[in-house]
Write the structure tokens for this entry.
Amino acid sequence: MHVPDGFIDAPTSAVTGLVAAGALAVSLRGARRELDERTAPLAGLVAAFIFAVQMLNFPVAAGTSGHLLGGALAAILVGPCTGVLCVSVVLLMQGILFADGGLTALGVNITDMALVTTVVAYVVFRGLVKVLPRGRRSVTAAAFVAALLSVPAAAVAFTLLYAVGGTTDVAIGKVATAMIGVHVLIGLGEAAITALTVGAVIAVRPDLVYGARGLRQRLKLRVNGELVDAPASAPVPVAARTSRRALWITGLAASVVLAGFVSFYASADPDGLEKVAHDHGIDAKAEEHAAAGSPLADYGVRDVSDARLSGGLAGVIGVGATVAAGSGVFWAVRRRRTGAPSEAR
């Protein structure tokens, strides 16, 4: 759903730029409360993972594909404020390095893909967690529903922005029907990816999942051949848990494999917004990307003739750049938090 330059007029793009800047400022402050020494390294990895999975377009209808937006996944794993920052880092890397999503439309994309999806998903997620039985399955189920709803919410947000500042004369009803319809289908893919990822992390390190804070797995002891709950005060042995370093390395390796190898087999069909824009003429005034001449434009490495190698190298470079940028941002945020008490004294 990356909005190119020229879809939305300059005044509306400028306003959404201000909205995005305000959201990022608030998120930077909020992330200081969400991140600690355990979760700060995970945030950079989450950004890199979202970048990698966004390269895996999956078919949703005849001639149409979809890809992960990532707002729900980031919000549940590392918190809503940190989640906004994660997706924003991804969008910034995509826009500057890969000419994906217009630079003048960066405010539109951050508002739509980072802010709307994260806020909607986390509100739905928290509401469901409060009413569902406390447990890991409930967290995973809530993640599925939250992710599912976040994608059509982003489609609605784009439709409203187009109604205010669209550069072409297309009936808003047609835009809404087409955008919401296809993005409900894309939301199913988003929900499946989000639930599987959240469930996988909860299975090994529930203490690192922001949305699962407060949930504790009871240690099982075998007594007379039967498994019984250990006393609540009994700690879970460290040897039974996956270390943070192992989780980080595994996540980074998975991101590299997805972006560097699996992405070659992704659907080549246009995504939901591209398809709707082409079918209804929304792209009539689309402008060439300012970074169209980038060596990595369109997720390929210039002068590398082999398509598989070119796309794979671009994906690996993107994962590396995103994890470096994201880790730098979250390290700085974490440092500000740890430095605050000493400054107060």
Notes: The chain has one domain: 10-344.
